[in-house]
Design brief:
The complex is a heterodimer of chains A (319) and B (280). Chain A contains 13 helices and no strands. In chain A, helix 1 runs antiparallel to helix 13. The longest helix of chain A has 36 residues. The mean pLDDT of chain A is 85. Chain B is mostly helical and 280 residues long. Chain B has 11 helices and no strands. The chains are: A mainly alpha (319), B mainly alpha (280). Chains A and B meet through helix 1, helix 6, helix 7, helix 11 and helix 12 of A and helix 4, helix 5, helix 8 and helix 10 of B.
């Protein structure tokens, strides 16, 4: 069986595993959903009202029945109803996911536009001062946690320019692209920093490996100019691992950046799940984690397929 | 071991990484042993929010507590959580990865699919879920971070172990009649030390970041105890008035992570026979 097909067959199995895992994990959190939903007012509930609420959210059944009902619902495209929002989980996900997606795309754009040229430049100038500077900056970028980058950016802006990042109500990009970008640019830079650093390091190291290859030396000895060898022969091959790295990183970002969303007060997917966990909103946690895991696995599958398609030397061994 | 340390000290980034790491380790040990300039919990209402001075090298916080002392205790706390969680994760991951590669078949499938399940979770959310189940605290953080990184160690150990199983020198050892356990420890073990060592250093860097992130969200170390993440979170509302409250933990966290990343780079160069030749 070829590798991608094997991956496709394993896919539903892993999704089921994720579903079971999150279903059990969220129910192990102490406290019950009805109390968490109503806070102190839950004390005013009569036992009949409490039972009615439990029945409404399907919480009166045992775990197996709950899981089965949920699973059947999921397969029909129904992720259940959130106890905190009182809305279908799927609606809540679609409200928060565009922001997360936009943030992931912006961060990746920033990382690639800075990372690839800087990596090539460093490799072409190996061991010269310019290479050392790029490596130094990349190492620092990779070593600074993104929420620290975010805090430092907020500080530098407020002290240096006397401005605070736009933290009002979030404006979706379709309503007002400029206002949206003003809100998104700082978080995107924040997440893009470590991402760019990783891209720089990957581009540089694969570029250096490839510049030692025989075919590069052949091209050079034919009298092909160095610049052309780098762009024509080395770069396309050097980019393959960079694409893999970016894909995996992008997959992670689609899961939401809890800390950065928290710092910039963005209503993304990460914070939604964080709050859902704290509120014991079973359906919302289950639905959104399943959604995040699904995206993550799809992105990884696509990355693998792209990897095979881009490099004719790679053919997945069939076992 | 001493030879490896010498090699690390000779490697340019290894030397820097090792130096920073030793400084932090000393600070961590002193911080946890209570040998800080001031009591990290002692409040001095008169000396609130003072900038760096001779009496308080890194200034004081909102309650007049000495930032240097709190930083030392915080580094100690971060190191304890990181070392223990990476220790648990690497041990558990190695056992799972090695047995998966060796026994293959059903066990391999079961282990690796479960790892796929764990990997499909965003790291910080998985940790958050575990912490909300067991309640925040030092050992819950250790458990949460360990579970997040077990799949990575399992994969790192299984891959090379699988390819090593069918290598000529293992077959050769087998034809000589060498026992299975000797092959596993001597031939496979030694070849797996390299990837494991590199992975441990890198995992330590991530563990530091994850711990700080969890504490920043209020789900790691609990106040009034000090931790880098809590210090950063406290600094948020005071950063314009008292910027040192932000800079001190931010730079400390960055340097600590940097030291592990540098050590990881150095170890990768030293332990990889291919780059080793290039270095010589």
């Amino acid at each position: 069986m070829s590798y991608p097909i094997k991956r496709l067959l394993v896919f539903p199995l892993v999704m089921l595993g994720v579903a079971i895992f999150v279903f059990i994990a969220i129910r192990l959190v102490p406290g019950d959903a009805i109390t968490a939903m109503l806070g102190t007012e839950s004390g005013l509930l009569t036992s009949a009202q409490r039972e009615a609420l439990s029945a409404y959210f399907g919480l009166d059944q045992n775990w197996f029945v709950q899981f089965w009902r949920w699973l059947v619902g999921v397969l029909q495209g129904n992720l259940g109803i959130s106890t905190t929002y009182g809305k279908p989980v799927i609606t809540i996900i679609w409200e928060h996911f565009p922001l997360t997606l936009e943030l992931a795309v912006l961060s990746m754009l920033i990382a690639l536009t800075i990372g690839i040229p800087a990596g090539i430049y460093a490799a072409a100038n190996k061991d010269r001062p310019s290479d050392l500077i790029v490596r130094f900056v990349a190492m620092f970028g990779q070593s600074t946690p993104s929420f620290v980058v975010g805090l430092l950016l907020v500080y530098l802006l407020s002290v240096g320019f006397g401005v605070l990042p736009e933290m009002g109500t979030f404006v979706p990009i379709i309503e007002d692209p400029l206002a949206n970008l003003a809100q998104m640019i700082l978080p995107a830079i924040t997440l893009g920093t470590a991402f760019a650093a990783a891209v720089i390091r990957m581009t540089r190291s694969t570029m250096l490996d490839i510049l030692q290859e025989d075919y590069v030396r052949t091209a050079r000895s034919k009298g092909m100019p160095r610049r052309r060898v780098i762009w024509r022969h080395a770069l396309p091959n050097a980019l393959i691992p960079v694409i893999t790295l970016s894909g995996v990183e992008f997959g992670y970002l689609l899961g939401g950046a809890v800390l950065v969303e928290q710092i910039f007060a963005l209503p993304g997917l990460g914070r939604t799940v964080l709050n859902a966990i704290l509120q014991r909103d079973y359906a919302l946690v289950q639905g959104s984690v399943l959604f995040i895991a699904f995206n993550f696995m799809i992105v990884n599958l696509l990355v693998d397929l792209a990897y095979a398609a881009l490099d004719p030397r790679i053919r997945f061994e069939s076992k | 071991m001493t030879a490896l340390l010498k090699d690390v000290a000779r490697h340019p980034s290894g030397r820097i990484g090792l130096t920073i790491f030793i400084v932090f380790l000393i600070a961590a040990v002193l911080g946890k042993a209570g040998l800080t300039p001031y009591d990290p919990l002692m409040q001095d209402r008169v000396a609130r929010l003072q900038g760096p001075s001779n009496a308080h090298w890194f200034g004081t916080d909102l309650f007049g507590r000495d930032v240097l002392s709190r930083l030392m205790e915080g580094i100690g706390q971060s190191f304890i959580i990181s070392f223990f969680s990476v220790g648990v994760a690497s041990l558990l991951g190695s056992v799972l990865g090695l047995t998966a590669a060796w026994f293959s078949g059903l066990w391999d499938g079961a282990v690796m699919r479960f790892m796929d399940v764990l990997l499909a979770f965003p790291a910080i959310l998985l940790a958050l879920l575990i912490i909300t189940i067991f309640g925040p605290g030092t050992w819950t953080s250790v458990l949460a971070i360990a579970i997040v990184y077990v799949p990575i160690f399992t994969r790192v150990m299984r891959g090379p172990a699988l390819s090593l199983r069918h290598r000529d020198f293992v077959d050769a050892a087998r034809t000589f009649g060498t026992s299975r356990s000797y092959i596993m420890t001597r031939h496979l073990g030694l070849n797996l030390v390299a990837p494991l060592t590199v992975q441990i250093t890198l995992a330590l860097a991530w563990a530091l970041v994850t711990e700080a992130g969890l504490s920043f969200l209020g789900l790691g170390t609990q106040p009034p105890n000090a931790s880098l993440g809590l210090m950063l979170s406290d600094a948020r509302n005071l950063m314009e008035m008292a910027p040192w409250l932000l800079w001190v933990p931010a730079i400390a966290l960055m340097l600590a992570v940097l030291s592990f990343n540098l050590l990881g780079d150095a170890l990768r160069d030293i332990l990889d026979p291919k780059t080793r030749r290039r270095l010589a």
